Amino acid sequence: MTARAHSGRRPGDSGTREAIARAARRQFAELGYDRTSMRQVALEAQVDPTLVSHFHGSKRQLFLSVIGLPFQPAEVLPGLLAGDPNEAGARLARFALGVFESDEGRSRAVGLIRAATSEPEAARVVRDLLTREVLAPLAEGIGSDDADYRAALLMSQIVGLIMARYIVEVEPLASREHQAVADAIAPTLQRYLTGDLSAPLP
User: Fold this and answer.
1) Where are the domains of the chain?
2) Among 158, 122, 165, 157, which Cα is nearest to 28's?
């Protein structure tokens, strides 16, 4: 009897999940949610398309498993809260730019924001993970009032930065050294965290 040839990795092969995750993460980041397909992910990962469904079920489940915050909020929040509350904006700016400058962090952040523009579930992930688990607790932790509103303002700055610097690549912002960008946005983040938001503009 002649053995049938198999294409791609078998379900038990080591590294199959990782190969699928890498391919999916790259495609969601570069193509967005709508243009990424399970079949194309399988092709890039060099696995049979049925393996993608085997490990992840649906495209939505695949997305949620590979695209998310590139850090654990519970581990990050204590560091952002430590120290002078009047320097929390600078700590947040340095942390955010540091995350986005790593390959994995940038890929996850870009993929999440791209998908959030067209996929309601991705938008929910952005709101829940970033706003509710990081930004609102940060505002509350340093004693600011109206934490949800402040968190929404912080999110508008961070999401806008991801769009302009890493997706649209607006120059010279896109090529500016990340520490310089962190220093530039820190005062705005600080105002959103602790400033008087009811004060009229001069």
Assistant:
1) 16-66, 73-194
2) 122
- Whose CA is closest to 16, among 45, 37, 59? 45
Cα–Cα distance between 194 and 86 in angstroms, integer?
7
Closest CA to 173 of 190, 156, 185, 155: 185
Residue 1 has pLDDT above 50, yes or no: no
d(CA 191, CA 154): 9
192 class by beta-carbon count within 10 Å (0-12 exposed, 13-18 middle, 19+ buried):
buried
pLDDT-derived band at 9 (thresholds 50, 70, 90) equals very low
pLDDT tens track for 28-81 = 877 877 788 999 999 999 999 899 988 888 887 888 778 767 778 888 899 999
Average pLDDT, the chain: 85
Alpha carbon distance 42, 166 (integer Å): 26
Q: Is residue 17 classed exposed, middle or buried when 0-12, 13-18 and 19+ CB atoms within 10 A define those classes? A: middle
CA angle 167/168/171 to nearest 5° reads 120
Q: What is the CATH number of domain 73-194?
A: 1.10.357.10
The pLDDT value recorded for residue 96 is 93
**Looking at the domain that runs over 16-66, which CATH code has it been given?**
1.10.10.60
